[in-house]
Structures are given as C-alpha cells and as structure tokens.
Specification:
Elements lengths: L1 E2 L1 E9 L4 H14 L3 E7 L14 E9 L9 E6 L2 H9 L17 E10 L5 H6 L7 H8 L6 E5 L1 H8 L7 H5 L2 H12 L4 H11 L7 H18 L7 E2 L10 E5 H16 L3 E5 L6 H8 L6 E5 L3 H13 L3 E6 L1 H17 L3 E7 L16 H6 L8 E4 L6 H15 L2 E7 H5 L1 E5 L63 H16 L10 E3 L5 E6 L3 H11 L2 E5 L1 E3 L5 H5 L4 E6 L4 H9 L5 E5 L8 H10 L1
Parallel strand pairs: 1-8, 2-5, 5-6, 6-7, 10-11, 10-12, 12-13, 13-15, 14-15, 18-19, 18-21, 21-22
Antiparallel strand pairs: 2-4, 3-4, 9-16, 14-20, 17-19
C-alpha cells in the first residue's frame, strides 16, 4: 500500500524498551525523508508490577508527508503484552469497569494492524491485566475489536529466545531483546532498509559492544520473519516529503534542540554559556546535554536546589556570561523571587520552563500548558519579563536562540515555555548553518562613559548599559533594592520608584517592535479564527484544515505581536484552544478589548486530539 502518512504505536511494560524502539524507528524514518512527530508516553511512578495496566509505556510516531501531530488514531500497534493491548485499545477508558472498544471513540483506524506477542497472553497475564476471560482468542471479543482490525499473532518471546540461544546472554538479557524482534517486523512492514537500522544499533550500543551482535541478529531475524512468512498483510510505503528545503536533517527532541539553541546563541555572540540549574522532570535532559558540551565552552553547575540554581545563573550574568536556568512548573515557583532580582538588576537571563501537569507534583511525565500566567505575572511587585513559547520539538532550537538574543540585547529576563510533549517528542529538523542565524548584539557600554558609569544609565531605547566586573573605570554595584534613576544608589523616593517601574515595563514593551507580526493561516476569508499558543500549533493547524477556517498561532506571549488586536477583531468568531482552563484567553481579554473569545480547553495530561478540537468547534 502507498500512504501519505501512517501512525505507529509501540506499547509494552516500562522495561520493554518501547522508547528506544520508537526512537530508532522514528530516526530511521527521518533520514529517509519522512516528516515525523512523536509522542512518548510513560508513567511517572517507580516501575509498576510487570504486566499490569499501571506499568504500560508507549511511544507513538506519525510519519509521512504533511505531518503536524503524532496522530489521533493508530494504523499499526505493536502490543508486547495483554495490558498494553487493553490500554491502547480503550485509550483513556481502560480503567473503567466493562469498558469496550467504541467505534466512535476508537484508538485505531479502520483496517489497522495489531501485532501482539502471543507468549504474553497467558492466564496469569490476562488476570494481571484485569480481563474477564482467560483465553487469548476471547480477548479481542471482550475488548469489542471489530473484524476490520488485522490481528497479527507472533510468538515474540519464543522466537527471540530461539534467535539468541547460542549468544551466551542470560535469560533476562535475552527477554530484553524482544523489542528488537518487533522492530524488525515493523521495518519489514514499512520497507525500511536494514543497513540503516543496524547502523543505529551499532551507535546505540557503541559503549557495550558485546550487545551489538545479539541485537543485530534479533532485529534481522524479525525482518526475515515478516519477509518470509508475509504475515498475510500488505507492506506499507510512506511518501517522503517533497517540500523540504535542501540541507542536512536529523530527528531531534525538544530538550536537545533547546540545549543546542542556547549553545548556538553563545557561539554567535562570543560569550560563554553558563547553566545554573537543578534536576526536575521533564527539563533535566537539557542540563544533561549541556553538561556534555565542555568542548563548546559550556559551563554547567548542578546546584543544591532550584533557588541556588537560578542565583548562580544571575551571578554569571552579572559577570558577563550568557546565563540560563532550566526547570518545570514547581521549580519556576521557587525561582520567582530570584527572577525578580534579575528584573530589578536588569540583567539578561534565560529561564526555560518545560511545563508538566500540576499543581504541586501533579503529573510529572504528562503535558499541560498551565504555567502561562505564572510565567507572565508570577512574581512579586510590578515585575515584567519577556515570555516566549516554542511550538514544535524542532523549533525549540529557534526559540531558545531567540530567547537568548532578546535577553542579551534588551537586558531582561526571558522565560521560554516548552512542555513535556515537545521536550520528549521528536521532529524532523534541518540543521542550520551558523551564518543563517540572526546576528546577536549584546548590550555593551560606550567608551565615553568610562569614569562616569552608573548602573542606571540607558541608551535611546531605554535599555541600560551593561558593564561587567573587571572593566576599569566602570566599577558599580547592582542590587535588588530600588535604585535612583540617575545615580544608581539606593532610593526609596516614591516618584523615583514609579519612574523606574515604568522604565522597566517600557523596556519589555518595546520588544514588540522587534518581533514578527502575527500571521493568519488557512482559510483567511472564513469568519472563524482558531487561536493557540505553544505546542498546540500542529493540532490546531490540522483542525483548521479540516474545518476550512483560519488559524493564528502565538509564539510571542509577552509582549504580544503589535497587530494582535487588528487580527482578532477581523473575525466574527475567535476560539482559543489550549491545554489549560483558559489562561491565554484570560490574557488576551486583558490585552484586547471588544473581542468575544470562545474557548476549547483540555486538561488530561495529553496533547489535543484533532478530532476533539473539530467536535468542540462545531459545537460552539
């Protein structure tokens, strides 16, 4: 079969290697010219008992041409055990007593292929997965799967054991290789070249060379099993994208793209990159990536807590570095006072907030967009900061770079919002050349101010001059107390405080003159405009295409693009779609008067389903 795009889901226990399998297949597809969008989905708890519903881990990838989202429904499911089949078949309804597959809310496309490991459907397996039946052949009836679903039973466990019986590996290590046999079958199904897959395996196990040969053998045996038996299903060829500009491409996760964006910004402006941070799910991978980049003159300090992390970054900024700190929602709360210090001191600082489900510890491995108002307003006093939001795993690079550029050129903290979906998901990314990236001109200090320098002196754009320690003739102190607008000394004068408060706000406001205007896409002549921000872009784009309406997406949150009011007032019906209870809609209402905003909201810890947006918009 020839298809424009397909959605594949790998599902099994947390220890079954589903994330590795999904990532390998995604990367393999990306280098063949397929656009990709992925959704890793795993529990936050310490590993649940094997074979139980609570321990199911999944990885979904949508690949092909014109890919905006990881997809709503699967064309192919690889279920490594009975619990995985149940969770993936019933979706969010799996924990409801008596729940069944529902054509209306199904998780599979018509004629979907479901590959199962028949060795993981024993009586004990079915009992742990809370099935009523104890017979594998009755499982599909109990779930209510229609006959259009193509079930492909494969004895993955037994076949893997047979493939590795002479490998010298113990039984535990052999069982861990089942995912490679499954990957081999999927590579056959999608006509993926085995030499490329083997190359990825060799890279993955480069530090454990003893594991290369066994995994290559299992992968190859899986491919040959599908090829020789033909498995009674058609192979699928997926269209490569024809619209990709020439260049070097890779598959990249949002956290890695964010790290690389910061590295590129530091290289471009000739400053050292300093990260002061503390581990927190799901932001930690940014720190991991940067910690391994000493070759790029990156310095990373893992502090004892969130507050210490941001304070070391502020100190590095005072000393003249490009300084950043990374966190998630709970950590952003803890960093708020220190971010206020950076606002008062008017020092450049990049704060990356990888949003997750909350409040409190909430849903640490699930996605939400619930930190927006905290990012814009969540500090004491009148404390303005620039806020940006990335919208794809790939453009996390672009907006990390942009956040650094705005911070350095405007002497202000910048909060970059990503989220779990972007951070852990992957997308096809064209690696840019350094010459293609916008110039970054950090704020400096004129020679004529030598001996006359004050921490309050500003240029014609209301941006204070940046002198750093060690510059003779520019000695100064910079504090968290309010300072005199001329001398820079401590001041409690009421008029001066108001003047300085307005100056700091004006500095952030004028960033609107340097960012792109809001673009309208889709059917611009429609009377309905779908609006979103951050990671919802792909889902809203797909929904707008299906509905035949217009869409506008925001990456610049504070300040908003200059033409925001003009765009919103041009449409009869404006519907704001976001993964929270209406935070961006609230912000827009406070900034733009005379627009009746409708809302589509979801707070399930998962990205939007395109069909849910379509249904909600039609209902409105």
């Amino acid at each position: 079969m020839q298809k424009q795009n397909v959605v594949i889901k790998f599902c099994g226990d947390s220890g079954d290697g589903m994330q590795l399998t999904g990532n390998m297949f995604s990367s393999l597809s990306a280098i063949l010219g397929n656009e990709i969008s992925t959704l890793p989905d795993f529990p936050a708890e310490i590993r649940a008992p094997q074979g139980t519903l609570g321990g199911v881990s999944g990885f979904q990838v949508n690949l092909g041409n014109g890919v905006y989202t990881p997809g709503d429904k699967a064309d192919v499911l690889v279920a490594m055990n009975a619990a995985a089949l149940k969770v993936c078949t019933l979706g969010s309804k799996f924990n409801q007593a008596g729940a069944q597959y529902n054509e209306k809310d199904c998780t599979f496309k018509k004629n979907a292929v479901v590959i199962i490991d028949t060795d993981a459907f024993s009586d004990k397996d079915l009992e742990k997965a809370l099935y009523q039946t104890r017979k594998m052949e009755e499982v599909f009836t109990e779930l209510g799967l229609p006959e259009s679903i193509q079930i492909v039973p494969v004895a993955l466990t037994q076949l893997t054991k047979e493939a590795l019986k002479d490998s010298g590996l113990d039984n535990k290590a052999i069982l861990k290789s089942r995912n490679m046999f499954a990957l081999g079958i999927v590579c056959w199904l999608f006509d993926r070249p085995m030499d490329k897959a083997i190359h990825f395996l060799e890279g993955k196990f480069a530090k454990k060379p003893a594991l290369i040969a066994p995994n290559v053998k299992v992968l190859t045996d899986g491919f040959n099993y599908g090829n020789n038996l033909a498995l009674n299903i058609q192979t699928i060829q997926v269209e490569s994208s024809e619209d990709l500009p020439h260049g070097t491409y890779t598959s990249i996760a949002g956290n890695k793209a964010t790290a690389w964006g910061l590295i590129a910004a530091a290289e471009k402006c000739g400053k050292r990159l300093f990260l002061g941070s503390y581990p927190i799910t799901p932001a930690t991978d940014i720190m991991h990536e940067l910690a391994g980049r000493k070759d790029q003159n990156v310095m990373v300090v893992q502090a004892e807590d969130e507050i210490a992390g941001v304070c070391t970054a502020i100190g590095a900024s005072f000393a003249g570095d490009l300084a950043a700190t990374t966190t998630s929602g709970p950590g952003l709360s803890l960093k708020s006072e220190a971010v206020g210090l950076a606002v008062m001191a008017e020092l450049p600082l990049v704060v990356v907030d990888v949003q997750r489900g909350g409040p409190s510890t909430g849903l640490p491995t699930k996605t939400e967009q619930t930190d927006l108002l905290q990012a814009v307003y969540g500090r004491n006093g009148e404390c303005p900061a620039v806020v940006l939001a990335a919208s794809t795993s790939a453009n996390c690079f672009q907006f990390a770079y942009e956040a650094a550029k705005i911070a350095l050129e405007n002497m202000t903290p910048v909060v970059l919002l990503t989220d779990t979906y972007l951070a852990n998901g992957t997308a096809l990314w064209r690696i840019p050349k350094m010459a293609e990236l916008p110039e970054i001109k950090p704020q400096g200090v004129p020679e004529e101010l030598k001996g006359k320098y004050s921490v309050s002196l500003r240029d014609e754009n209301n941006i204070r001059y940046w002198a750093v320690p060690g510059m003779e003739g520019y000695e100064h102190r910079n504090i968290g107390l309010e300072r005199d607008s001329v001398k820079g000394s401590i001041s409690t004068n009421p008029e001066n405080h108001e003047k300085m408060t307005l100056a700091r706000q004006a500095k952030v406001n004028q960033v609107a003159n340097k960012i792109p205007e809001l673009k309208v896409m889709g059917n611009v002549k429609s009377d309905t405009l779908l609006v979103g921000w951050g990671s919802t872009e792909g889902h809203i784009h797909a929904a707008a295409d299906e509905l035949g309406c217009a869409m506008a997406h925001f990456n610049y949150i504070n300040p908003l693009p200059k033409n925001t009011a003009e765009v919103l007032k041009s449409y009869k019906r404006v519907i704001v779609c976001e993964l929270n209870n209406g935070q961006f809609a609230t912000l827009l209402r406070s900034k733009v008067s005379g627009v009746n905003l409708l809302q589509v909201n979801s707070m399930k810890g998962q990205p939007f389903q395109v069909e849910d947006i379509v249904k909600s918009v039609k209902a409105l």
